Amino acid sequence: MSDVESLKAEVKKLNARATQAKMDLHDLSEELPTHWEKIPEVAKIAFEAHAALVDARKRLAEVS
Question: Which domains are assigned to the chain?
């Protein structure tokens, strides 16, 4: 598998993870004030997932 194909696969995987994290954050927001104490944990997961996705997209753009 080439570097480009590998990065495309990584972006696809990270996109799915970021989308799920976004949905989890959205679901939590709709449940508020129930489970309010989970906000930092869920937000951190969403932040890290999106940061990893942005980084992978930048690396893909550099090699494409």
Answer: 3-63 (1.10.287.660)
Query: Whole-angstrom Cα distance, residue 11 to residue 59?
Result: 10
Q: Global pTM?
A: 0.89
CA distance 37 to 39: 6
Give the Cα separation of 21 and 56 in Å (integer): 17
Residue-wise pLDDT tens digits, 1-55: 689 999 999 999 999 999 999 999 999 999 999 999 999 999 999 999 999 999 9
- Tokens standing for residue 51: 């940061």
- The answer to whether residues 11 and 60 touch, using CB atoms and an 8 Å cutoff, is yes
Residues 6 or more apart whose CB falls under 8 angstroms from that of 18 comprise: 46, 49, 50, 52, 53
